[in-house]
Amino acid sequence: MASAADSYDGSIIQNGVRNVLTKVKAAGVLRLVFHDAGTFDISDKSGGMNGSIIYEADRPENAGLSKSLKILRKAKEGIDQVQQVSWADLIAVAGAEAVALCGGPEISIRLGRLDSSTADPTGKLPEETLDVVALKTSFGKKGFSVHPCLLGRTQEMVVLSGAHTIGGKGFGNPNAFDNAYFKVLLEKPRPTSSGMPIGLPTDWALTEDDECLRWIDIYAEDEDKFFADFRDAYTKLVNSGASWRTA
Asked: For 8-54, how does the pLDDT look when each residue is reduced to its tens digit (9 = 90+)?
């Protein structure tokens, strides 16, 4: 049986995004994905990749995302003239396009997500000051390999943190999606950029945990492994909490 997504032409969405996206704008667009999908709570299946970020741009944790929403709103206007696209699908595709534009892996996105008509609950995104124990708990609540004995929760948390390799956080070339993030985390003493700290406290919290360091080492040595694992984790992220069209 064909899925509802079979009726969509994904290239129309991709081309619409490409018309408005630049490398300079890529990090902000990718951040939109994390802030929309990152509200997912596996305990009650609330939040997730549902486009609700359009109602949440004024929240402190979403500061600066209005610019990225404005960029995608322009893309949506053009795409909707050809075929209707949900915000959830658009943001998921746009994040994948941002990664690819900056030299990262190509990520195939399943289409057919439905949009929420209301904002998600507050307080669902991990705070930038969390220590590594709290980070693991936060990611576990979002369904990222909730069996600690498999070490998967740590792996997915670390690989998704690698998204910070693009943007203005100081991890190498801000417009290049590569494994520089992990290489910088291994530098000692802790590096600075123009006298300012690099990254967020949560980035460096990863270096205080042996399991996380194991994965940081792996990705610093093997960019292809980072790309492959990021592709898988991103796909899981953008499917988290999604409701799908059935017809």
From this structure: 899 999 999 999 999 999 999 999 999 999 999 999 999 999 999 99
For residue 105 the two structure tokens come to: 């892996």
Q: Which CATH architecture has domain 132-234?
A: Orthogonal Bundle (1.10)
The answer to whether residues 97 and 17 touch, using CB atoms and an 8 Å cutoff, is yes
pTM: 0.93
pLDDT value for 5: 56
Rounded Cα distance, 80 and 99, in Å: 23
CATH topology of domain 4-123+235-239: Peroxidase; domain 1 (1.10.520)
Examine the residue annotation and report whether 35 is marked as an active-site residue of this protein.
Answer: yes
CA distance 218 to 212: 10
Crossing angle (nearest 10°) for helices 23-37 and 65-80: 90
- The rounded distance, in Å, linking the Cα atoms of 60 and 158 is 24
Q: 35, 113, 124, 153: which one is catalytic?
A: 35
Mention every residue, 6+ apart, whose C-beta is less than 8 A from residue 230. Answer: 99, 104, 105, 159, 160, 162, 163
> Residue 242 has which token pair?
């999604």
Ordered DSSP codes for 157-203: HHHHHGGGGSSTTSSS-TT--SSHHHHHHT-SSPPEETTEEPS-HHH
Q: What is the dihedral of CA 169, 170, 174, 178, to 10 degrees?
A: -100
How many Å apart are CA 137 and CA 155, to the nearest integer?
A: 13
